[in-house]
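User: quick one, fold this
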Amino acid sequence: MFSRDRWSEIIEALTSNWFRTVLTAFGVMWGIFILVILLAAGKGLENGVKQGFGGMATNSMFMWTQTVSKPYKGMPKGRRYSFEIEDVDAIKRQVPELMIVSPRNQLGGFRGTNNVVRGLNTGAYNVYGDYPEIIQQEPMDITSGRFINYSDIEQKRKVAIIGDGVRSELYDKGEEVLGTYIKINGVNFMVIGTYKKKGNNGDAEEMQKQIFVPFTSFSQAFNRGNKVGWMALTARDGSSITNVKNDIMDVVKSRHSIHPDDDRAVGHFDLFKEYSKVNGLFIALKAVAYFVGVLVLLSGIIGISNIMLIVVKERTNEIGVRRALGATPWSIRGQILMESVFLTIISGMAGIILATGVIWLVNFQLSQMDTSEMMFLNPSVNLGVVLIALSILIISGILAGLIPAQQAIKIKPVDALRTE
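Assistant:
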């Protein structure tokens, strides 16, 4: 099967009419090129959108209090309630599937009044009272100094970590930040670190204008007592926050005498559910890419099949002589199939190489740009996609040559020798 004579025949047959062979191969090359480019573009879009999550722990949800909508145990509807720090311990104890439960308090905001002062500079920023675990749920790059630790929590230190946006507005360029003081609602906090977050959504700039302080010092400085504004909860690996959401709600409702069927009393945002929707969208896009790519490839395969039928017709005398000399039907069929598969693979590999070159050029251009806020990042295809493409090529080559091969073995030696 892999004899030199047979491969010489294949090369000779395909090169006897270069122009026709190139035009035929172009259809397959273009189909594979479109397939790979569509998959790479989809991956680039997926990378860009996921970058917008800023590396957040996606198996998370955020929970806050709302107005009670149903009377329960003698208490009226419409009442307000607050989370307490004891709720955090209860949730951790009763819902073992959770990995992190972070209580948070929040003050101010960029749409509010100025709440932070340093010297003559003022600004309106979101100030968060947090525990150290929040950096696992809402990752950030610490550009200088450090983040909150448990010594800060236990000793109620008045320390703060500020974003690069806060730094640029309250400090002069090149000015030392660590060890300086800022005044938050009249209370002095010492800056011990700066951070930068990644994101490509509309609030990317505002994400750099946040301030983090220890939860305990926040509660003490701003008279929050044991109250908790809201919580960030992350499930363990292997568990879905969506699946344990009802258990969390049950704990909160039980502790605050809320009717078990009152779904409005506890507000929440399920990040994992939204992230799953995004993943579903990209799975659909990948399916569309395969569908379109295969359809384009199919047109190329039909072209190869037609050309192989013409080749068989042109080689009728040759096939007749070979049959007269004792060539078996399988030998004739194998020859035609090998020519078809060889042409398909060569043209398909050319399409893969061309697509790889285009992807490399796009990535090279992106590497020269700031992609931190772009919705398109690192378009690529993995080895699995290449293997799938090769499998498609081999199967396509066999299908393209099957009909011509069957046509060839139907030729009778006597009739073939009589053909002019």
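User: anything notable?
Assistant: The first helix runs from residue 4 to 15.
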